[in-house]
Amino acid sequence: MRVLVQRASRAAVTVDGSVTGKIGPGLLLLVGLTHGDDEAVLDWMVHKLANLRVFSDGDGKMNLSLTDVDGGVLAISQFTLYGDAKKGNRPSYIEAARPEVAEPLYDKFCEKLGEAIGKTVQRGVFGAHMDVELVNDGPVTLMLEK
What we know:
This protein is an alpha/beta fold. It has one domain (2-140): D-tyrosyl-trna(Tyr) Deacylase, Chain: A (3-Layer(bba) Sandwich). It has helices spanning 39-51, 66-69, 99-117, and strands spanning 2-15, 18-23, 26-32, 55-56, 62-64, 72-77, 122-123, 131-145. Strands 1, 2, 3, 6, 7 and 8 form a 6-stranded mixed sheet that branches. A two-stranded antiparallel ribbon has the order 4-5.
């Protein structure tokens, strides 16, 4: 599992002209799943994200977590995080989990993260073409992998 984490002032996702998810301050997560990912991997990532200290305290130091600042989360499924472009010019996505495996894991991940932070995780639409808007705060961007 790979999650590209971006601290956001605000973020939104639109599918077919309709906003399907949006947040104010919080985290935009691009979520990629691979073969062998399971509930233990999801649990590790949920714990990491709920407690990741990337928000500034009163002294301007990154000491606060998502739950400390009551931040929102927008999670976007992103199989291209497992794209491999080492050979040739067309990426291979063989390392990405198949949709029939990835979609239930993505749904479970969003549910578990929502429970951990005490609010609904906003989402895009799995497998859809999405327009994602982001105001990256900082910018702060991290890649987490388990």
